Amino acid sequence: MNLVETSMQLTHRGALAMIVAAVGKAEEIGQPQCVVIVDASGVALAEIRMSGAKFLSLKSAKAKARTAASIGAKTTSIPEAVRPLIGLATDGNVTGLEGGLPIVVDGHLLGGIGVGSGSGDQDTEVARAGLAAIGADL
């Protein structure tokens, strides 16, 4: 029985590279965004609210990142029927809103990225740019 195991983790440099790439994509599409990167336990490693992004979207971006990290899947994987109830039950910490993706590298779940302030498609596009910066599985 193993009492200790080795695991991969996202570094601060990786989180910063993701933020830079996500901001670059948001600027490219002309939509200021809130971007949050969390580790596998849901702790924020990096976050930014771009100038012009909706300040309340920072809260939804964090919920998206934590949800993706918790379930190891995109936030829209949460069934539509339970989204309102799960949001209420978790005080808004779990969401089915579009824009949250897991950070998976070589099959290892390292955390989540959450993006908010644009349309769902824009949020996801910006999140995917963040993942691509570190070679995460898309």
Automatic annotation (TrEMBL):
Taxonomic classification: Bacteria, Pseudomonadati, Pseudomonadota, Alphaproteobacteria, Hyphomicrobiales
Pfam families per UniProt: HbpS-like
SUPFAM superfamilies, alphabetized: GlcG-like
Record's protein name: Glc operon protein GlcG
